[in-house]
User: Fold this.
Amino acid sequence: LPILRARQNVPMDRQRDEDGRYRLALPGAGHYVLVASADGWATRSQFVDVTGPELPQFTLSRPLLLTGTVVSSGGPTADLPVTLLKHSGEYQAATRTDAEGRFEMSLPPSGRYVVTALCEERGESAARGLTVLTQPQDIELELASSHRLNVNAPA
Assistant:
């Protein structure tokens, strides 16, 4: 939780507890810029005028999300599984589409990922690679017919 004295851009000492409450050691009353950032939330900044020991309430209210829509010319896309995998193939998260084919999940840490959607009853699937940074992302996955692979495991 950086706080800068307006017109100086010099960070002040700050501490945050487990519940997200903060304490600041400021040199005195003045005009400051408060910048709040936390994993999974959009960064926010605000000018604050400090006249006494109390600081204004400052709440991060916009979660960073990966959202999207699954579409198909073959039919509805409600209640379909959507899975997020790390580019290396490791499971990261999963959700299901709503009645309109929309989905949302928390934005994962920065990195490379693959998002997949599957409609098993119609034999359709979609996969899309994406690079996550620190901005919300909204994507579209278009289902297409896929071929079944039969894999025989050694006995």
